[in-house]
Amino acid sequence: MGRVRQKSFLYTGDLLVLNIDCVCRVLDEQFKESSAVFRPNMLNLKEALELPYAQDSTMTEDFATMLNTYKVSVNTWLESN
Question: Is residue 2 part of a domain?
């Protein structure tokens, strides 16, 4: 059985607070020389963001859009670092 994203930080409201898009920009602009330190956690974040959502019927369009934006941000950061 494949992994399914259960209720985690991604779905407790913390995802809204984290603003992963902003975090990626800060890491890229302020900590570029230390990107190797952040890469393992960014790979973990990418994996967490890509797990299927356990309750698709409760995912709002706004949340899905935000989640997609964060996936793109993390992937872009990983590609450039």
Answer: no
